[in-house]
Design goal:
Blueprint (H helix, E strand, L loop, with lengths): L1 H58 L17 E7 L9 H14 L6 E6 L1 H6 L6 E5 L8 H17 L4 E9 L4 E8 L22 H75 L7
Parallel strand pairs: 1-2, 1-4, 2-3
Antiparallel strand pairs: 4-5
Helix pairs in contact: 1-5
């Protein structure tokens, strides 16, 4: 009886764990749906700003900083921004980012490199790494994105203020490409497509072109970081759903195994009880009369 009680107790604990894991999976699913709606809007914003920048730079190409300057003073500091996870239960999400970092860092053409880790779980992985400039708390849910993004922008502003030139490359998971992708944010607008339609003349501005470009860059970087963070969080939640689905299946298998074992022990107990009853009935049977 004690062995079956232990199995029942273990079943209860596994059942509770399964409910928790299943709830986490449901939350990840709902969060991915919310992110999908916000991501579509953010992508439209970024694409619109890129078209506006392409139209503007067609008539003012001299305003962009030179990226092929020679000489030691022109060598920029190369910073990698890694968009990791704030929470766990998402498989090798952060480990694969670090593996990609090693690959991209080897291909960097400058000696001065650094890393900004975004997401608490990723920061833990990079603790003590000499490449780490700073680690920032990320966003666990969509509602935490504005605060996390403001912390990131403040950090980048401080770093950019202390450097004459700065290269910033972001590494993040993209669920559509099912891979880790890179995007060079600084210097800005280096890989824009040409305008779709030819303009008869330069765009009419209410600001000085240099002032306009400066403010456009600020807005563009903020919008692009917003988009990348949404994409990374979408990939994180999809990977978390997949990881937790595997955990649910594993718990279900263990619960089924425990249930079969419990049923077997119960059958053995019933058999023993029947044997005891039969033996007891024989021992108390009345003597036969001749």
């Amino acid at each position: 009886m004690s062995r079956r009680r232990e199995l029942i107790h273990q079943q209860q604990k596994l059942g509770e764990a399964r409910e928790i894991v299943s709830s986490m999976k449901s939350l990840a699913f709902m969060e991915s749906r919310r992110l999908g709606q916000s991501l579509d809007v953010q992508r439209q914003i970024v694409r619109t700003m890129e078209r506006a920048a392409a139209d503007f730079l067609r008539f003012h190409p001299d305003l962009l900083p030179e990226t092929d300057a020679k000489g030691p003073s022109a060598s920029p500091r190369h910073i990698f921004l890694l968009l990791g996870s704030e929470r766990g239960f998402c498989g090798n999400f952060n480990e694969s980012l670090l593996a990609s970092l090693d690959t991209y860092e080897k291909g960097a053409s400058v000696e001065k490199t650094g890393v900004i880790a975004f997401g608490q779980k990723l920061c833990n992985r990079l603790e003590g790494d000499p490449r780490l400039i700073t680690g920032l708390d990320g966003a666990a849910v969509l509602d935490e994105v504005p605060g996390a993004l403001n912390r990131l922008v403040d950090t980048l502003t401080e770093l950019q203020a202390g450097e004459d030139t700065l290269r910033l490359t972001t590494l993040f998971h993209d669920p559509e490409q099912e891979a880790i992708v890179s995007c060079e944010l600084l210097p800005p607008f280096q890989h824009l497509s040409p305008p779709e339609a030819s303009l008869a003349g330069p765009p009419q501005l209410n600001l000085d072109p240099a002032r306009f470009l400066l403010e456009l860059v600020d807005q563009y970087l903020f919008a692009t970081l917003h988009e990348m963070l949404f994409v990374s969080m979408m990939a994180e939640n999809l990977q978390r759903m997949q990881h937790l689905e595997g955990a649910v299946r594993y718990l279900d298998q263990n619960l089924d195994s425990l249930q079969r074992r419990s049923n077997q022990l119960r059958q053995e107990e019933i058999t023993e009880e029947i044997e005891v009853i039969l033996l007891s009935s024989v021992s108390v049977a009345p003597p036969t009369v001749d």
